[in-house]
């Protein structure tokens, strides 16, 4: 793509042209490109803010522009407007950002004076904004100490380069914070997996021969019963299993439960066959197991 050879100014001009032609997707793509290439350029962030559609993303972009220069008028005004439209919790977070920025400006008005008006400070004619602000605020990525950046994770505040950050629904986050949030969602302990496996195994070992027997009574028509019973029994089993582990969630619970259930089913059916001399209709039991297991997997996943 010839895009790679464009200067930042040309890239921003193309993005603005796409926006003026109503091609929002292309404008968004080009502005995003510009922010990736020059994360310290507030014009790129303001452009991206105008091109993205969700207010969360807009907010993240304006916050980046404000981080580059806390006295950026356009970003300030836009954030105030977003705050007035946002839910109370978000509005107060935005207000905090704004008052932090105001405090920075108040502490050193001379330093931030140059870019006070929206038109003066965010010209697109400069790849790095060699303003006193940018020069004084050069940050280095926490993971790549040699890489300069102006991005910060909006959760932990750590400076991160474009490789170490992801644009989530709630703005720019470092990968550690994203993983941590997933870990708080997946709150299971190791012992939960043992309990999960044991409960699943025992339930299956008891239920499989009984259900196999009931289904087989109906002979050929057992598969109809399997269709009816599968999801219901699966749902009940999933509830029992989840309760047994205090409703905690784990990344691999669905898989562990299914393996334990298959083993339990095998043992249960074999014991049933040996003790009772009875072997269930495998087609019907297979249909039942498939429906029950997919229900359990969907619940525990
Ligand atoms: Zn973080
Ligand atoms: Zn990095």
Please characterize this protein's 3D structure.
The protein has three domains: 2-129, Tetratricopeptide repeat domain (Serine Threonine Protein Phosphatase 5, Tetratricopeptide repeat, Alpha Horseshoe); 138-185, Herpes Virus-1; 187-300, no CATH class. Mean pLDDT is 83; it is low at 115-136. Helix 1 (8-20) runs antiparallel to helix 2 (24-37), helix 3 runs antiparallel to helix 4 and helix 5 runs antiparallel to helix 6. Strands 1-2 form a two-stranded antiparallel sheet. It is 67% helix and 4% strand. It is mainly alpha-helical and 301 residues long. It has 14 helices and four strands. Bound molecules: zinc ion (2 copies).
Write the CATH fold name of the largest domain. Serine Threonine Protein Phosphatase 5, Tetratricopeptide repeat
Gyration radius (Cα, Å) is 29 Å
> Architecture of the largest domain, according to CATH?
Alpha Horseshoe
Q: For the largest beta sheet, what order do the strands appear in spatially?
A: 1-2
End-to-end gap: 42 Å
User: What would the average pLDDT be, to the nearest integer?
Assistant: 83
Q: How many distinct helices?
A: 14
Number of domains: 3
Q: How much strand content do the residues show?
A: under 5%
Task: Summarize the helix and strand pattern as letters.
Answer: HHHHHHHHHEEEEHHHHH
Structural class: mainly alpha
Shape: elongated
Q: How many strands appear in the DSSP assignment?
A: 4
Annotate the secondary structure layout.
Layout: H1 8-20, H2 24-37, H3 42-51, H4 55-68, H5 73-85, H6 88-107, H7 109-112, H8 118-121, H9 132-136, E1 139-140, E2 148-149, E3 165-168, E4 171-174, H10 175-185, H11 190-217, H12 222-244, H13 253-276, H14 282-300
Antiparallel strand pairs: 1-2, 3-4
Helix pairs in contact: 1-2, 1-3, 2-3, 3-4, 4-5, 4-6, 5-6, 11-12, 11-13, 12-14, 13-14
Bound molecules: zinc ion (ZN) (2 copies).
């Amino acid at each position: 793509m010839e895009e790679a050879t464009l200067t930042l100014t040309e890239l921003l001009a193309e993005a603005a042209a796409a926006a003026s032609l109503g091609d929002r997707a292309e404008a968004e793509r080009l502005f995003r490109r510009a922010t990736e290439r020059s994360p310290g350029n507030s014009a790129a962030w303001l452009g991206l803010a105008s091109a993205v559609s969700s207010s969360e993303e807009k907010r993240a972009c304006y916050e980046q522009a404000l981080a580059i220069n806390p006295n950026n008028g356009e970003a300030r005004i836009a954030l105030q407007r977003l705050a007035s439209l946002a839910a109370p919790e978000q509005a107060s977070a935005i207000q905090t950002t704004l008052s932090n920025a105001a405090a920075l400006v108040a502490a050193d008005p001379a330093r931030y004076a140059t870019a006070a008006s929206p038109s003066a400070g965010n010209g697109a004619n400069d790849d790095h904004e060699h303003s006193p602000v940018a020069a004084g605020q050069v940050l280095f990525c926490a993971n790549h100490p040699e890489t300069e950046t102006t991005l910060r994770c909006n959760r932990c505040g750590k400076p991160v380069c474009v490789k170490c950050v992801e644009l989530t629904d709630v703005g720019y986050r470092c990968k550690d914070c994203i993983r941590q949030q997933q870990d708080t969602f997946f709150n299971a302990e190791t012992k939960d997996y043992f309990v999960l496996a044991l409960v699943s195994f025992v339930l299956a070992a008891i239920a499989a021969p009984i259900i196999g027997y009931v289904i087989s009574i109906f002979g050929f028509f057992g598969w109809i019963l399997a269709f009816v019973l599968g999801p219901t029994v699966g749902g009940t089993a999933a509830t029992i299993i989840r309760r047994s582990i205090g409703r905690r969630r784990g990344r691999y619970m669905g898989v562990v439960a299914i393996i334990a259930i298959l083993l339990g089913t095998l043992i249960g059916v074999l014991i049933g066959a040996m003790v009772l001399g009875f072997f269930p209709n495998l087609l019907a039991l297979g249909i039942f197991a498939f429906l029950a297991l997919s229900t359990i997997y969907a619940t525990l996943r």
